[in-house]
Structures are given as C-alpha cells and as structure tokens.
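Justification of resources, computational component.

The compute hours requested in this renewal are based largely on the per-chain cost of generating structure records like the one below. Each record pairs the submitted sequence with a full structure-token output. That output is archived, and it is also reused by downstream analysis tasks.
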Amino acid sequence: MSFKLPIDYFRLGSCIVLCEAVGVVGGLFTASSVSTWYATLARPSFNPPNWVFGPAWTLLYLLMGISLYIVWQHRGEMRKKRRAIILFLIQLGLNAAWSLIFFGLRSPLWAFADIMVLWVLILVTVVSFWKISQPAALLLIPYLLWVSFAAVLNYSIWNLNPAT
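The structure output for this chain reads:
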C-alpha cells in the first residue's frame, strides 16, 4: 500500500528556483555573446532560431526542479537518495559551466568537452533517480534528449569554426 506525501511547497519552490537560477546565470553569459560573437559563427543547417533556446531551457529547468523535489521528498534509503542528489548537483554545475565556457570564454572545443561529461552525468543521474522514483527519472529524459541535441550542435559549431 502506498500513500502520497503532502506537497512541501517551500522545497518544491527551492528546487525549481535552484534549477532556474542556473538558467539565469547561463543567460548572463549567453546574452552578451549571442548578437556579437555567436552571430559571426558558421552554424549547421539544423541550428534552431535563437528564440527557441530560452523557452526550451526554462521548461527543462522546471522539469529538473520537479524531478529533484520528488527525489528529495522520497522516503527511501538515505544513502541512495544522497548519492542521487549529489550527482544531480554536480551535473547542474556542469550545465552552468557550459554557458560560461561556450559563450563567456568563447570556446566551443572546451564546451564540447564539458557537454560530453555533462551528458554522461545526466545519464548516471537518470539511472540513480530511477532507483528511487521512476517519475523523477522520466522527468529528466527531455533534458537528456535536449543535451544530446546540444552536444551535436556544439560539435558541429566547433567543427565548422576550427579557429575558435
């Protein structure tokens, strides 16, 4: 028999704000480079219009925050839960670092290295979350898919602009 825990709106809000804050920090680096440096780069034909990235990331950070909240609230083995949350926080840090590296440092090569490690850590986080809560893990799948696309896009931009 299972029962639902009451929603802790403070924890839920904290998880969402944490994830969205990463987006805001990334946006600070992105905004200063999109109309200048990024606009000068050769980009692949499948590069989405710039306006797509803001809404996509906002939604993904929301889903990530909800996912983190579900795991945090879960009444399971504390060791497993702690490991999953630490993995989540590490990948979130790498997520923030990508914007700094790609747009702030203007380094598609090092950003690609970051996003490859990020992708692996997202996958490990999904597996770790799955062992605690399948819905929490499933909420991270769109993020994994988007980062997969972003990695291909990052690689393509680096390949098309070898001097950067």
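Helices lie at 9-40, 53-73, 78-104, 108-130, 134-139, 141-160. The chain has one domain: 9-37+51-160.
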